[in-house]
Design goal:
With about 220 residues, the chain is α/β, with parallel strands linked by helices. Helices cover about 35% and strands about 20% of the residues. The protein has a single domain, classed as Vaccinia Virus protein VP39 (Rossmann fold), CATH 3.40.50. The protein is globular, with a radius of gyration of 17 Å. The N terminus is likely disordered.
């Protein structure tokens, strides 16, 4: 999207990285479609830990949102630029504090929450600046993770957890039970939830803390 379109979601004093040429979205994944279903057309959206911008690009094209992303990795910001997105390089908490209450219609924190150094601060700030917050994360309580730790006693390595412990960023592995307890403690309202099975495709309708591989939450406060 153009810088003119994104100016309404830019914090005062921040230096945006923008471009105008939009690129086609990548193949839609199930979690992206669910997130998209929760976003109203022509609204203001902030993506925390936006990465290369695949989700934002999808939302811009499918819902015509006014979108902005933030990420620490400048290479990811450059990838957003190539997609024609507005993005900022910086620390999430400082970025969020630049906005007034309920500035965004929706804030998204997808596949990011487990890597936050202070998830409580980021989530509460996101709920302050956003009317709704979408959180998506890998469920560390998935049964295969439990079996791996029981039998091998080591950090799991697979297509989801691709690195050794000494190669990865500091992480706070979170389970569905952990996250829902957090919401109760902090007085966060769970508006909607979706649990996906181990293939991240089919719905998980029973024992999600054990059988779900991925979880999505629509939150309000």
């Amino acid at each position: 999207m153009s810088s003119a379109t994104s100016s309404s979601v830019s914090p005062a004093g921040a230096a945006p990285v923008t471009a105008t040429a939009a690129q086609p979205v990548e193949k839609r994944t199930v979690d992206m479609q669910i997130i998209g279903d929760w976003v109203e057309p022509n609204t203001r959206v902030l993506d925390l830990g936006c990465g290369a911008g695949a989700l934002l690009d999808y939302l811009v094209q499918s819902k015509q949102v006014s979108a902005v992303g933030v990420d620490l990795d400048f290479r990811q910001i450059t990838a957003c630029v190539r997609r024609g997105l507005s993005a900022y390089q910086g620390e999430m908490t400082e970025f969020l504090r630049a906005f007034p209450d309920k500035h965004f219609d929706r804030v998204i924190c997808s596949r990011t929450v487990q890597e936050l150094s202070d998830p409580t601060v980021v989530i509460l700030e996101a709920l302050r600046v956003g009317r709704r917050l979408t959180v998506g994360f890998v469920n560390h309580g998935f049964w295969k993770n439990r079996v791996n730790m029981l039998l091998r006693g080591r950090k799991i390595r697979n297509e989801v957890y691709t690195t050794e412990w000494f190669e990865s960023q500091p992480a706070n592995p979170v389970t569905i039970a952990d996250f829902e307890h957090f919401c109760v403690v902090k007085g966060i309202r769970i508006v909607r939830r979706v649990h996906l099975g181990g293939n991240w495709h089919d719905p998980c309708r029973a024992l999600p803390n054990l059988l779900a591989g991925y979880a999505l939450y629509d939150l309000a406060k």
